[in-house]
Amino acid sequence: MLLSGVLSLTFLSLASLAGAGTVTYNWDVTWVNAAPDGFSRPVIGINNQWPCPKIEATKGDIVVVNLNNKLGNETTGLHFHGVNQINSIEMDGPSAFTQCPVPPGSTIQYKFLVDAAGTYWYHSHNMGQYPDGLRGPLIVHDPQDPYQGKYDEEVILTVSDWYHSQSIPIVQNMLTPANGFRPPFPDTVIVNEGGDGQINFVKGKTYRIRIISFAAFASAMLHFDSHAMNVIMNDGSYIKNNSANQLRVAPAQRYDVLISAIDRDRRNYPYLVALDVNKDFANDAAPVWPYNFTGQLVMDKKLNFTNDVVGAFRPQDDSNFAPYDDASAFGPVTKTLTMNFNFCTDQNGIGRACINGQPNIPQKVPTLYTVATTGNDNTNPIIYGAVNPFIVSASDIVDIVINNRDDAIHPFHLHGHQFQVMDRPRSGTGDYPGRTNGFAKKPPMRDVISVNGRSYAVLRFKADNPGVFLFHCHIEWHVEMGLTATIIEAPELLRGKTFPADHLNNCKLLKIPIAGNAAGNTVNVTDTTGFITVPDPNYIG
Ligand SMILES: *[C@@H]1O[C@H](CO)[C@@H](O)[C@H](O)[C@H]1NC(C)=O
Ligand SMILES: *[C@@H]1O[C@H](CO)[C@@H](O)[C@H](O)[C@H]1NC(C)=O
Ligand SMILES: *[C@@H]1O[C@H](CO)[C@@H](O)[C@H](O)[C@H]1NC(C)=O
Ligand SMILES: *[C@@H]1O[C@H](CO)[C@@H](O)[C@H](O)[C@H]1NC(C)=O
Ligand SMILES: *[C@@H]1O[C@H](CO)[C@@H](O)[C@H](O)[C@H]1NC(C)=O
Ligand SMILES: [Cu+2]
């Protein structure tokens, strides 16, 4: 009796969790030699292999990554780009903000719910390591996919700029007074981390291509010969399917597109991935396209392979996409965060990227630990130091106004939310004039938006996810120059938050304080003694 009672109880609880499983990955982070473009160099891989493996789960699953840092000579960590981290902000991954770096020989466990389906990716958010290879796809399948039945197969297509030098010397050379604000230029473009870019196509079938940019600097123009891309999702948000001939995929952006293999003539169809190394392709007098990759939709290997030639790039305007569910703009807005971005120079004459005149300078105590340990003072921005803190409360509807005062396009990413793109006008529009007449009534949602040169974007989110969420340009080199703001969301709900022992142990090993204000002052948290106010010329974040 008792036994059968227990059994049926177990059966019931399993049944109620149907579809919600746990997927576990045990990963050693290791150095590997690889030659994705024919040039051999050390890259950061997983379990002695590179490219890094994909994470694959179903909406509602728990993902567990047991990470073991076997690099020997560098700290590490992982961020799960686009995963909201509901009730698990300590698993978001950026070093100095939500955790301490994982030192060589140590471990960390990441454990989080994948609450939303879509195409995501994971990457190191530590020491500029993702351009060195520590990145991979993170696919969350959807049992209620609204486009289910509209496609036959799935394909992952990653695009990236690629460098022959490692990130540390790249950043060291960039952060010198002589360099000014010049970003390092890539050596080439790769798809699928050095794959041949051949996608097998069968006439009449429709493919869902999950496009992910792993780039550190340059966007990728994408065009398929004779085949339109039927865009169904951008970043982690479904849109009403939209036919596009060209897309401009900025660093960290994703597009899910359906492509139906046409049944017309007997040939293979090339596609072009062209790196946009221009400041602003639309306005540059003579844009240059030095790095092209030609892939193939292969109908029959025995048929000819040709090149895809594009006369001019006119990518689809993603700010005009429509949300699949017709959701209206959140409102009314209760807080507006205005961020004016421009390049600037620090006290050592080094080129930096500033928000409202201030580059982000990571502090001694990870910001999330300051939130958790400073009680009622945690709503006071003073205690966080020069991390460009912006405090929002649990009930806020927030507009981020980002004014881009530089000539180039910059792709801004928000952790922890899909934001609504209220407005993203063309280059040369100037600062946001405060008028809302151009705002979308039913704005598309995503997590990386290209902000045009000398123009602005207005991005809206609901502060329903307590945490410390970075808002930053996803050009990795600009992160190293300080182009990051820190959104401290609903800190009043995070007072006294505790952290897993393995996370805290990494801080201990690295002698990083885990309580108090930015400098670790616990007695008087408004005492700013010890705050880092000048960027350390040798710091690589
Ligand atoms: C760590 O070791 C790898 C592999 O030998 C090397 O390529 C890399 O440059 C080293 N990193 C540092 C910071 O010395
Ligand atoms: C959406 O997909 C349907 C079915 O394939 C198609 O008829 C329609 O033209 C598409 N709409 C757009 C805007 O691409
Ligand atoms: C394939 O290429 C060869 C060599 O350029 C050419 O002679 C041939 O006509 C092409 N075949 C087709 C089917 O286009
Ligand atoms: C890359 O492709 C573009 C568009 O077709 C073309 O204008 C450009 O010349 C190509 N670049 C190279 C180096 O072939
Ligand atoms: C805390 O430090 C601030 C800044 O130094 C100072 O103004 C304030 O008086 C101090 N408060 C206490 C209680 O000591
Ligand atoms: Cu940037």
UniProtKB/TrEMBL annotation:
Signal sequence region: 1-20
Alphabetical keyword list: Copper, Metal-binding, Oxidoreductase, Signal
Keyword set includes Kinase: no
Boundaries of every Plastocyanin-like domain copy: 29-144, 153-274, 361-491
CDD domains: CuRO_2_Fet3p_like
GO biological process entries: cellular response to iron ion starvation; reductive iron assimilation
Alphabetized Gene3D superfamilies for the sequence: Cupredoxins - blue copper proteins (2.60.40.420)
Entry GO MF terms: copper ion binding; ferroxidase activity
Superkingdom field: Eukaryota
GO cellular component: high-affinity iron permease complex
Protein's UniProt keywords contain Signal: yes
Family, per entry: Belongs to the multicopper oxidase family.
Protein name: Iron transport multicopper oxidase fet3
Biological source species: Coniochaeta ligniaria NRRL 30616
